[in-house]
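A quick word before the example. In earlier lectures we treated sequence and structure as two separate objects. From today on, think of them as two lines of the same record. Here is RNA-binding protein written that way.
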Amino acid sequence: MAQRRATSKGFARTSSLLTQRIRKASESRGFAQSRLLTHWEEVVGEDIAAIARPVNVSYGRQGFGASLTILTTGSNAPILEMQKEQIRTKVNAVYGYNAISRIKITQTAPVGFAEGRAVFEREVTPKKPEPTPEIKQAAAQSAGGVKSDDLRMALERLAQNVLTKSKT
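And the structure line, produced from the sequence above:
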């Protein structure tokens, strides 16, 4: 019996069609490993990926390691500066050897470039819950003996903040 030959009848997997184009685009920016671009969040972690994007890999004249340029906002640059060595270690794990010897941090505005390539997500601060009438009454009772109106109102606000704070 003849062995059945697998055929796709003219259809190709999307990944096989895009692999060459992704590789060509990433190599134009110096990324020998396109996985560094496509799986950035997995490589460096969610916390760093939320504030930084890889931009370029440039190779030195003598070939002693490459420099990875990372784009971030100005306020997040000091955070990344302290984590350069951990980022370099994680990126080199993708390459399988010490390909990256230096990391450069480039700062930009929070919205990034005009093309929208570097949009960074902003942290949303949770809204404080409105104190219930029972909490307002308890806060008023705790500051009730104070004669100064300004001091009493400040103590009431403090008591409301303490009583509405969630226990974590």
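Notice the following. Residues 149-164 form the longest helix (16 residues). We will return to this example when we discuss secondary structure assignment.
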